[in-house]
## 1
Amino acid sequence: MTNCFADMSEFVVEHEPLAGYTSYRVGGPARWLARPRNVEELARLVGRCVDEDIAVFTIGRGANLLVGDEGVDGMVIRLDAPAFCRIDWPAASRGSGHQPTGQAQAVLAGAGADMYWLVRESVRRGLAGLEGLAGIPGCLGGIVRMNAGGKWGQIADVVRGLTVVDGRGDVRRLTPAEAGFGYRRSSLAGMVICDVQLELQPEDPIEVRERLKGAWRSKSATQPMHELSAGCVFKNPPGGSAGALIDRAGLKGRSVGGGRVSQVHANFIVVRPGVTAEDIFTLIGQVRREVARQFGVELELEIEVWGRRHVRVPEPTG
């Protein structure tokens, strides 16, 4: 195939292995990997992909993602340039002393901003709204796209607007309603998020910091924070818990190759060196089969899968 991105060689490479870009440390090569330096280059890149009928994927810190061993036949975009990682804080947030409650403060953050740092810095500045998302790995764009969250809230609670490059290569501003947020989902598929406007509440930094510590303590006690994983594998079924179902099915500790269902939290698959994507795919299939057989519940994936579009739930036997 002719390299249709030859004129973009300053920020596009071919046949780039993706394992080093994902939390699981697995995944074959991307046909192309692009790291555009600004919104203009991003829009031009997406427009070219549209013209050439090339699929577009976006990768941040590689959390919540499983890339097949065969790789990705398309354009993978990584927004790690300074233009996509900047955060514009309100001048009123000084990060010292008591910050009086009052009018909500707007924070404009690039899609490539690291969520760990964004949470910590907002707390330091006495801005509340993100502290309950402590421990969720990845960059802001990926977290917004899947509407990540937990028992302390979800990112959509504080999103007030987004800039995206849409599926035609046009730069657009979206409202939260247009983003279509729902439980662990949005309507942003086919779009590349550039930046996000967040609305945070000024509060006493000490009180916000205590809530952050509480969230960290809870997650450290109940999740495998010190092992390689991609976060929760399955969405919780209506009115239930995916982790509890997997645990009740007796699957904690089940392993395939280098992948294993966590003993700490059954909705995590943890990995060790030498794991392959096929190991993880196989283990996911086994978990879904057993939960479907024992409880009649078909677990839906929360992680995103590239290369193999789905993991089938085998028919129960016996």
Note: The chain is about 25% helix and 25% strand.
## 2
Amino acid sequence: MLTSEILKATRQALRECHSSAWVVGGAVRDALLGRGCADIDLAVDVDPESLPKLANIIANASGAAAVTLDAKRGVCRIVPKSGLIPIDLTAIPSGIGPDLLRRDFTINALGLPLQLWPNVEASQALDPAGGLADLSAKRIRAISEKTLTADPLRLLRAVRLCAELGFEIDSETSVWIKRNAALIKSVAGERIRDEFVRLIRQPRSAHHLHLLDYLGLLTQIIPELEEARDVAQPDGHHWDVLQHSIETVGSAKGVLQQESLPAAVLERIQWDDDLIGHFNQSTAQGRTRSDVLALAGLLHDIAKPACKTVGEDGRIRFLGHPKFGVIPSEKILQRLRFSVRERRMVATMVREHLRPALITRSHDGPSSRALFRYFRDTGQVTVDTLFLSLADYLAAKGPRLDQEDWHAYAERIHGILDAYRSESSEVQVPKLVNGHDLMGTLGLKPGPFVGRLMNSLREAQATGEIETRSEALALASKLFVSTPAARGSEALAEE
């Protein structure tokens, strides 16, 4: 909430300039719903050119800082001391009534005189659009079609609010969204990204992605997903490719949030404080590994339509789709302005999402060599890819999930997790030799071949084939002699 210092300074400054202010929008809505709020908007009855001076007076009196965001429109931000929420001031020279009616949804077109804050009562709120009734009915209703098209991000925001508040979209508003869905393409990628991430991190994320698709927004935001619609899959899958991709997001969130899935499913998932901490790790700008896993779930089969073949026996195959999904997934996330790190994390998960299932097919479990290669190739998303595999399996089976088969599969995947977390995992062993040792001993130039030799030696060390420096150099010499590429001009220093 507003700190007492800023509240006092704001009231004093308004009295001195004979102006009024109202807390408006989401802060009033959330207070009436008993929810916390992330920021506070104040509508101030002054001219735009006067607002920066007023903001500076408030900031100086309360030990905060003032930033002018839009001088022409009169928008400033008060940035309090660390740990407190920011406050945005907006000039409303035409008065509070018209300002509220320019907002997006009726439940956001609520105002409360600043002098009453933070004691919010519905009877004291300004409500020109019927937002209080919509709050009671748990309904998202746009003030008008024009307010949606004025900023097309509001089309997506309607679904995000549904997800966060547990509301439903009004039928007329749904018609307006569907009619104008293509306008979302005009919105900057980073604005779409932020709303989209807030949507997919909510419980019942698959339900709201299906709603996004029903309204025509999902494949406007990610056109590449349209190719997955109605693409049939082998008998082991319950849904087509697009529905499966959406359901994988829901399964991933259900597993990570430990809800929305049957108890018989969740009881087979290893879940502890270390995993909670892992998936809560920040990736960029308030996003987490949990968010990135959901994105990978949505995009992991993005290349299936292009890779689909049907044999003479009628068998459907998607050969190579993990590899061919890397570039499209990276392009999608780049378009939506995700960070380089997040794009690489998703690309790796897309490329390797079948690996956990493949390396656990043997009754004896994965070999030490297979584990080493999996740990090496998945790098920073080793654990994340395992949980993508679990979500992928659940979404493939859907309501036809066999509990005994699920138990066996989850146990195999958690066997990989246990190996990774074990202190005895050879993936962490120190190098016996380095690249300079190889170049000096074998007369090699720096180049890709040295890197390939090092990978081979690390793998042999991890699987127990070599244990000493001399054994490493002996194996390197053997590999050098037996590899034709080693005799190329890149390899031999004397040539």
Note: The radius of gyration is 28 Å.
